[in-house]
Structures are given as structure tokens and as C-alpha cells.
Write a structure and sequence with these properties.
Blueprint lengths: L10 H10 L5 H18 L10 H13 L12 E5 L7 H7 L4 E6 L2 H13 L5 E5 L2 H4 L9 E7 L4 H8 L3 E12 L2 H14 L2 E10 L6 E9 L13 H4 L3
Parallel strand pairs: 1-2, 1-4, 2-3, 4-5
Antiparallel strand pairs: 5-7, 6-7
Helix pairs in contact: 1-3, 3-4, 7-8
The structure holds S-adenosylmethionine.
Length: 244
């Protein structure tokens, strides 16, 4: 697929990137546009995202995913896991913008993982893999358990449930960052004891407006201070059925 950047109105994207202080090369811009095209094409035959209009994909998917920089310096990290990545958010935009990151994308829906593998291939991304499975099962496998510098997750579950999915993947001293809307304070309060039980501590909640919009966002930053006890995550489905 040949991408001609002149065909796209990139003003909003460029302004948002400037606000986030992210510099992208022409190659990276083209990768973003190719991702947009693949997303749109596949969305016609399967349910990937309700957001399809170009400028909305730019702000609500691409810039929103990249807003991680409001809380974390991606350059300081090596390994990242994106739990419940769906059509690839935030993991794929992070990989395009920060190609040195080693990223693992996880989703329990096989069709979405197949789509992600197509994106990885067509964008020629290296050091990224898409894994089909439930977080609760994968986090019990030695190769994934407590082996990431950072776990990210957006729009997957409420924080008490999400913490049980995500914290077991994070190594001691690492971080779990949950992408949330502005009303995350209540969620943080209700997740405090679960986070502690799982070896973490809620360290920060970074509030900001999504670049170019008046949409409020929050990044909840959880530090992994100790190990997650072996009993967690509980078997698939339990975190959701009986949140800690
Ligand atoms: N993170 C993406 C985004 O922000 O656009 C997708 C959000 S979508 C609403 C939630 C995704 O999480 C779905 O693709 C679903 O299959 C996946 N998911 C939900 N529970 C999961 C679990 N326990 N393990 C792995 N994936 C899960």
C-alpha cells in the first residue's frame, strides 16, 4: 500500500504531536496513515472501532494513545505490554512513535489479534508481537509474569479488575499506567486495596485535556513495589465476577 502524505489533512495531528512534544519522521507519519487505512478497511468487515472519521481517529486513538508521555518517558523503558489492546490502542501508536520499545499486544479476541499481525507485517514493525489470550491466563506463564517495565491498558475494565489483569505482568520497580477518563478518582479509591494486595501502589493521577479537544483524560500511574502473590490473577473470569 503506497501512502501519499499530501492526501491527508495532518494539521490537527501535527499540532497535537507538538503539544505532546513528539517528533515524527516522514516514515513514521506514513506508518500512522497506513494504520488508519488498514483500520478503516478492516472495520468494514469486522468490529474494530466505533471511531472511523479521520480527525477523530487522529485525536481519540492516535493522540490519546501517545498521551502516555504526559506521565512516563517512553525513552526510559524497554519492555511494554498492552493488555486488551483491541485494534491496537495504545500499543501500536506507541510502537510507531518509539520504535525501540519491545511491545507485546494482548487480546482475548482472535480476530483482533489476526488484524494486529497484519498491521505489524504491513507497517514493517519489528520488536512487537500480538498474542491471543486472556490476561489472567498469560500472566501465569513464566515468560510473561513480572517481566515488563510497563503495562498499559485503555478501556478494558474498572481499575480494581484491571489491576488484577495488569499488575502481575509488571516487574518489581516497573509501572502500570491505566488510561482513564477524568472521573478516575473514585475508581482509584475503590482499587487501592486491590493494588496493594497485588504488590503496587497508586503513585499519581495525571489529568489533562486531549490535545486539540476539550476532552478530559486521566492517566493513573501505579508503581510495582513488590511481587504479586502467586494466587493472582485468579482464574479467567474471576477478577471481573468478584473484583478484589
Ligand atoms: N484498548 C483498546 C482501545 O482502547 O481501543 C480496546 C478496548 S476494547 C473496549 C476492550 C478489549 O479488551 C477488547 O478487544 C477485549 O477483547 C479485550 N479484553 C477484555 N478482557 C480481556 C482479558 N481478560 N484479557 C485480554 N483481553 C481482554
Amino acid at each position: 500500500m503506497k501512502i501519499e502524505l499530501e492526501k491527508y489533512d495532518l494539521q490537527k495531528f501535527s499540532e497535537g504531536l507538538r503539544e505532546l512534544e513528539i517528533d515524527l519522521s516522514e516514515k513514521q507519519m506514513k506508518q500512522f496513515m497506513m494504520y488508519y487505512e488498514l483500520l478503516n478497511e478492516k472495520n468494514k468487515v469486522m468490529n474494530l472501532t466505533a471511531i472511523t472519521e479521520f480527525s477523530e481517529v487522529i485525536s481519540k486513538h492516535f493522540l490519546d494513545s501517545l498521551s502516555l508521555v504526559m506521565a512516563v518517558e517512553p525513552e526510559d523503558l524497554e519492555t511494554v505490554i498492552d493488555v486488551g489492546t483491541g485494534a491496537g490502542f495504545p500499543g501500536i501508536p506507541l510502537k510507531i512513535a518509539y520504535p525501540n520499545l519491545k511491545i507485546t499486544l494482548v487480546d482475548s479476541l482472535k480476530k483482533r489479534v489476526d488484524f494486529l499481525n497484519e498491521v505489524i507485517l504491513k507497517l514493517d514493525l519489528k520488536g512487537i508481537k500480538a498474542v491471543h489470550g486472556r490476561a489472567e491466563d498469560l500472566a501465569r506463564e513464566q515468560k510473561y509474569r513480572e517481566s515488563f517495565d510497563l503495562c498499559v491498558s485503555r478501556a478494558v475494565a474498572a481499575l480494581p479488575v484491571l489491576s488484577e489483569y495488569c499488575l502481575p505482568f509488571v516487574g518489581e520497580g516497573g509501572l502500570f499506567v491505566a488510561y482513564k477518563a477524568k472521573d478516575a478518582e473514585g475508581e482509584c479509591r475503590s482499587a487501592e486495596s486491590a493494588v496493594e494486595l497485588l504488590g503496587g501502589v497508586i503513585a499519581d493521577m495525571v489529568l489533562f485535556s486531549l490535545p486539540g479537544t476539550d476532552l478530559d483524560r486521566a492517566l493513573v500511574v501505579i508503581e510495582k513495589e513488590g511481587h504479586t502473590p502467586k494466587a493472582y490473577p485468579r482464574k479467567a473470569g474471576m477478577p471481573e465476577k468478584k473484583p478484589l
